[in-house]
Amino acid sequence: MEVEPTQLKVALIPGTGRIGSRLARRLALANVSVFIGSRSPQKGLQGAHDILASCPHGRVQGGSNQEAAAWGDTIFWNPSGSLEEREELLQSLASHLENKVIIDVTNVMYFFDESQWGQTSSVLLNQKALGVPARWTTAFKATFYKFFDDLPDPNDPQCTFVAGDDEEAIQRTVALVEVIPGFKAIKAGGLANSKIIELLGPRWLFELDTLNAGGNYRSGWKYVW
Ligand SMILES: NC(=O)c1ccc[n+]([C@@H]2O[C@H](COP(=O)([O-])OP(=O)(O)OC[C@H]3O[C@@H](n4cnc5c(N)ncnc54)[C@H](OP(=O)(O)O)[C@@H]3O)[C@@H](O)[C@H]2O)c1
After folding, report:
1. Closest ligand 1 atom, CA of 140?
2. Average pLDDT over the chain, rounded to whole?
3. Does residue 221 lie within any of the structural domains?
4. Residues lining ligand 1, CB < 6 A?
5. CA atoms of 2 and 145, how far apart (whole Å)
6. In a domain, 162, yes or no
7. Pyrroline-5-carboxylate reductase catalytic N-terminal domain: which residues (predicted)?
8. Hey, which of 70, 140, 193, 213 has its CA 20 to 30 A from 45?
9. H runs (alpha helix) in 15-77
């Protein structure tokens, strides 16, 4: 099953934050059609304008999160805010997101105490909160945003773990990861494995980065076989 990423309509909800804006720009540079969502339509439009300034031939639009959710066939889900605020946003978009592919970039483990680590994951909580079926996957959960400013060496790529329960959604996610130079998608099994994947994310990665890499936020994972 071959997926051509330039045929996809990729909405970033939102496409304005540290990771969302950079993902949007990198996808636009790879000629993927993108929509910059935001709680503020003006901010979404401005985000699109900013990307077009450095990517004049990009297929980039911007507006509200609602417009983004309605337009996209594939969604990158990357809001910040509290758990409740994220869930509220998700539920407000449910009618547009039903059966779509949603690539979850979010992390929540730092909201929980140690007794809950590994018991659930952001994407599993989101899947439940959405309340309608969608095809969720994971990507870039443990990728510091700085990597998108100064890309990894394609000969020595950064890995990101792609989990999901729908094969076509996984293929789309792999294609979108690998359209960005310097990234390799590692198939990571079913969505339940997100409980493991999210433990590799910010909390421990920050600690490792501080202990070993001088806190420069350019450390990450490689899967070797
Ligand atoms: N930063 C990283 O390196 C990195 C790496 C991997 C994963 N992540 C994960 O990606 C997610 C976003 O991180 P980020 O660093 O990009 O965050 P961020 O810079 O704070 O941006 C996230 C965006 O979320 C929206 N937002 C803020 N508060 C909100 C609320 N209360 N309800 C709904 N939307 C809200 C804002 O967009 P609008 O104002 O336009 O709506 C904001 O631009 C987090 O879950 C984080 O763990 C981040």
Report:
1. 6
2. 96
3. no
4. 14, 16-20, 38-40, 43, 78-81, 85, 89, 105-107, 140-141, 143-145, 202
5. 28
6. yes
7. 9-107
8. 140
9. 18-29, 41-54, 65-71
Closest C-alpha residue for ligand 1 atom 45: 106
* pLDDT tens per residue, range 105-122: 999 888 888 899 999 999
Measured on CA atoms in the order 117, 191, 188, 76, is the torsion positive or negative? Answer: negative
Is the pLDDT at 56 greater than 80? The verdict is: yes
β-pairing, 74-77 vs 9-13, is: parallel
Q: Residue 139: inside a domain, yes or no?
A: yes
Answer left, alpha or beta for residue 81, where phi above 0 means left and psi between -120 and 50 means alpha.
Answer: left
Q: How many domains does the chain have?
A: 1
DSSP 128: H
User: How far, in Å, is the centroid of ligand 1 from the Cα of 13?
Assistant: 9
Distance CA 196, CA 218 (A): 21
225 within a domain of the structure (yes/no): no
What ligand 1 atom has the least distance to the C-alpha of 217? 3
CB 111 within 8 A of CB 120: no
